Amino acid sequence: MYPPIEPYETGKLKVSDIHTLYYELSGKKDGNPIVFLHGGPGGGTDPLDRSFFDPSKYKIVLFDQRGSGNSTPTASLEENTTWDLVKDIEKLREHLGIDKWHVFGGSWGSTLSLAYAQSHPDRVKTLVLRGIFTLRKSELRFFYQDGASHIFPEAWEEFIAPIPEAERGDIVLAYHPQLNSEDDETRLRAARAWTKWEMWTSKLHVDPKQVAEADDSEWSNAFARIENHYFVNNGFMRDGQLLEKQEIDKIRHIPCVVVQGRYDVVCPATTAYALKKVWPEITLHIVPDAGHSSREPGTSKLLVKATDEFAHI
Ligand SMILES: CNCC(=O)c1nnc(C(C)(C)C)o1
């Protein structure tokens, strides 16, 4: 990855009566524009996210999606849907005076990248996607009900601890009232447990520092509340919508590289493979020794290779 850099500009963009987005620009002021779509949803951006792009070539645009990171109001679920975020990306593009841009997204960021590209194909130069997540019911079931739980039994036991036995038939649904509780202790306990589950399972070798991030109550609260809100609403999409032929046909012409960890238990390779089957033109790399995280060495190397190759487009 490229060395850490600082933004040359940061800003706030009011996108609705309620929401104001934080955004930042780094790299080459008159460079090839790329927009980074973070995961979660609700995860917010990290300064290291700038390092996937050559700063001598790209105008790097990072922004925190509604309720995430430095965008306000923090953790707000009002007017917070996939399609609100797609509209926000267009508002940001117009605000920055960009005609067309490269789009980069992992996990939920890959979901939003596909939704944005299918809504505005004429605004997307290329797509670089990681850990494909299309929010199908089967994907949510694997990670939050009966799948990853078989690979991380000890972390799963901690994850379901806040949920009464009688409610464990639908974990995502059962977490919703706790993550929206008026009682701070209930809400934050649930947010930390929800977030810890994802931090425990994101890398091939569990990163205790990443797991400890779940104890950052403000970040976990936003991450868990917003993720759960989207998941109980199935991403505000038809099941499998992003993989439908009629939707893929809208973007089939766009160059797309996908990097997928073989041992990604958060967004298993089956979805990346389903995308390849319906969109054979994509370049699909399955990294043999990687889990879900973009920071897995084999994954980050291939992501940078892709952005380097697309920098001339
Ligand atoms: C099911 N959500 C997966 C996702 O989008 C995601 N996984 N990790 C992240 C962060 C890096 C933002 C924590 O997001």
Describe the fold and architecture.
Pfam families: Abhydrolase_1. Its main location: cytoplasm. The chain has eleven helices and eight strands. With 313 residues, it is α/β, with parallel strands linked by helices. The protein folds into two domains: 9-135 and 237-310, Alpha/Beta hydrolase fold, catalytic domain (Rossmann fold, 3-Layer(aba) Sandwich), CATH 3.40.50; 138-234, no CATH class. It has an eight-stranded mixed sheet with strand order 1-2-4-3-5-6-7-8, with helices on both faces. Helix 10 (269-278) links the parallel strand 7 and strand 8. The longest helix has 18 residues, at 184-201. The model has no long low-confidence stretch (mean pLDDT 98). Bound molecules: the ligand CNCC(=O)c1nnc(C(C)(C)C)o1. The ligand CNCC(=O)c1nnc(C(C)(C)C)o1 binds at residues 38-40, 43, 107-108, 133, 198, 202, 227, 266.
